[in-house]
Structures are given as structure tokens and as C-alpha cells.
Amino acid sequence: MTIILGIDPGSRITGYGLIKETNRTIEYIDSGCIRTSPEGELSHKLLQIYDGICQLMDRHSPTEVAIEQVFMHQNPSSALKLGHARGVAMVAAASHRIKINEYSARAIKQAVVGYGAADKEQVSHMVVHLLMLNKAPQKDAADALAIAICHSHMRNGLSALSGTRGFSRRRRIR
């Protein structure tokens, strides 16, 4: 059994998603968002992200962590803030001695939807379908679950073109 924590970093909202993989079967555990204070110092926001990830690590004891790679952003200030948020999320996982796996947005979409240029609605729809959820999670949480699903596919040696073949789903979450 493997518990995978997917992280969608952001300086204001960091999404997280946890799935359990057993014998190539994926099952939803938990998801949500770590929201930072809208005002205040960047260092305080980063500490909130760090503390939130550490609490998740302590509560769920994931065996693997996956995080989205930084993409080039038009606004340099936003890119730097995103990089800081991503960095503290990685340090939180690394402080628990967990290896961090990184995936590009295109690779995540390809692994989950089968199309690397899929939009957020398509990704969210497939997350609901693959994890048999009754409703879509919050946007950032859905992205984090997609990151965890991508890692599950990649760690099992599935190519991006194979989609979800070979995986089965557990019971529907109520």
C-alpha cells in the first residue's frame, strides 16, 4: 500500500490531495486547501503553508509526495511567490524524509485526461471519475488530486498514452 500526497502550490491557496494505491487500485483519502492570510508578510504566509503540509504529513503519513513543477509566469513577482510556496512545501515533505516527485502541468494532464492541453474542467471531471467522488473537490484540491493520480500512474510505469488502463477504482465516496 502506498499513500501519495499531491501538492498544488500557491502563495494564497495551496491545494492538497491524498490517495491510497493498493495493487494498482486508487482510492480517495482526503483533499482540501491550505489558505494563507490575505494580508501580512510573505514569510508568515510561507510558514502557514509549511505548518499545513507538516500537519498533513503527521496525520496521514504519506509514503510518497508529488508536486507540480513551476511554469514560466508572465509576472516575475508572481513567479517568485509561487517558487517560494513550492519551496516551503518541498521542505515540509523533505523534513519528513519523503522523496519528492515533480511533474509538469502537461504531464499531469496527459496522465489524468490523456491530453496534455486539457482544461481545468476536464481534469476535475476525470479526478471525480477516477476516484469515484460524488462531487468535484475545490479547484486547487482537484489539481492536487490530479498530481497524486499522475504520480500513481508514473510510478507504475504506465506511459502517458495508456491512460488508466490497468487501474481499477474503489467504491464511491459518499
From TrEMBL:
E.C. number: 3.1.21.10
HAMAP family named among the record's database cross-references: RuvC
InterPro entries, per the entry: RNaseH-like_sf, RNaseH_sf, X-over_junc_endoDNase_Mg_BS, X-over_junc_endoDNase_RuvC
Gene name of this polypeptide: ruvC
Protein name: Crossover junction endodeoxyribonuclease RuvC
Coiled coil: none
A biological-process GO annotation: DNA recombination
Subunit note: Homodimer which binds Holliday junction (HJ) DNA. The HJ becomes 2-fold symmetrical on binding to RuvC with unstacked arms; it has a different conformation from HJ DNA in complex with RuvA. In the full resolvosome a probable DNA-RuvA(4)-RuvB(12)-RuvC(2) complex forms which resolves the HJ.
Names of required cofactors: Mg(2+)
Keywords in alphabetical order: Cytoplasm, DNA damage, DNA recombination, DNA repair, DNA-binding, Endonuclease, Hydrolase, Magnesium, Metal-binding, Nuclease
Similarity comment text for this entry: Belongs to the RuvC family.
Active site: D8, E68, D140
Any one Gene Ontology molecular-function term assigned to this protein's record: crossover junction DNA endonuclease activity
Binding site for Mg(2+) 1: D8, D140
Catalytic activity entry: Endonucleolytic cleavage at a junction such as a reciprocal single-stranded crossover between two homologous DNA duplexes (Holliday junction)
